[in-house]
Protein 1
Amino acid sequence: MVCVGLLALTTACTGGPVSLDAPALTGSAATACRAFVDALPARVADLARVDADVGQGFGAAFGDPAIEVRCGVRRPAGLTPTSECTTANGIGWYIPEDEQSGPNQGRPTDITMTTVGRAEYVEVQIPADYWPPVNAMVDLGPALKKTVPEMRPCV
């Protein structure tokens, strides 16, 4: 009986790979996103990379709860030519306005940020546990600069 309990506890702690709904890509999008994932650092926001099931797409996960990174996603619905963007480490990011101020009266909230002005959109979902998001922005910057070309700067 003790062995069964220990096995259940061990399984609960490991949980298996993080399941990411990363889009399937072809052509230049697949090439850029494959290179991006290969160039990702071992740690983001001081969290180690964890196993991720990305299906046919390209992505990665860091920590538990996981920071989820997906490459080649669609343009965010709220992103318009007049949307505010934030630049960190030379990369432009879009964060929906309601997630910037947060429904929690200024307290950290889960956010989804997406690159702006690059050949492919890269989406990063960050749990509130890892506030502020700038740490992840800075850590992802070198891989993005190296692999996903900038088409126009964030202004």
Protein 2
Amino acid sequence: MRAAIGLALVAAGLAGPAAAEEGLGPVTKLPMPRYVSLNASEINVRRGPGLDYRIDWVFRRDGLPVRVIDEYASWRRIRDHEGEDGWVYHALISGRRTVLVTLPGVLLQREPGGAGLARPCDTLTALPAGAVACAGEGVVARLEACAPDWCRIETGGYAGWVPKTAIWGVMATEVFGD
């Protein structure tokens, strides 16, 4: 009987935030999941979608990429690069795309391809040919374009291509731009 009631609620669209339409957010009709960035330097992350829910933690880094995994009214459930998730008010996130460097040192290349994988930045005496800069772990960069295995990012006035495996904030199959 309990299963029949649950199926009836899902069929009627009354099961709450978990009943999102396949591939699209029930509120925005934007792709789900999707990457966005934080739009403020201090953002409360709540246990549920509303001000009555407890604050579980506070983000204190503007521009950090997060993944929207659910929507309910004016609230978005987000997940960070460590796999933690919670609810934030929609105005506190932006469609501006950023990524987080997840390896100790990643060379930004002039062109996609080559040996751009992690090399500790502090051990380099000079940049190898074809590299324009070195980004350390934890750097947040603006996402400009993505090819099948590489993405073009910009940070600190430097722009270049990095392997997708060295950043967080982009889908493995995502291709756009350049």
